[in-house]
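Shapes recur. Our protein:

. . .
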Amino acid sequence: MKKILSILSLASILALVGCNSSSHQESPEQLSIQAVYSIDSKITSSSKSASEVVTKMQSVRLAGCPVDFTNAYKDYIRAWDKLVVLEKKMYGQNMKKASSDISSYISDFNSASAVVALKKEWPAFASEIDSITEGITKAYANCISVGARYNAVVKKDLF
């Protein structure tokens, strides 16, 4: 009985290994999209302002990406560009404070606490902050959705 269980366990392990070693090749479109994801994931963490984010995004090479993904990524950039407009309004009121607050918001963009903190510091712009954040989030989700059509996924750094 133990021998049968051992053989079954070994067969299960081999079957799992076989399933994981896919013969599926990544398409050029998939690789191009994933390269964009990789670069994009580093942009907010290395930027201090919305205008810097947009400038870096505009320099991302979209060569090899399908047209629908390219359009989705450009929409994503336009969503961030709306934050640039708000950033300029904030600079007009208090350049030093706005620089610090926007930098904090961007560095922790995927956190709800970043939105809450920015709205707390700039209550006059709270609804605009919500609208812009929602627009950026939706545009990014659309990029991910389009990328999924090409089997492209955002790969998180392990380290």
About this structure: The two ends are 44 Å apart (CA to CA). Residues 1-23 have pLDDT under 50 and may be disordered.
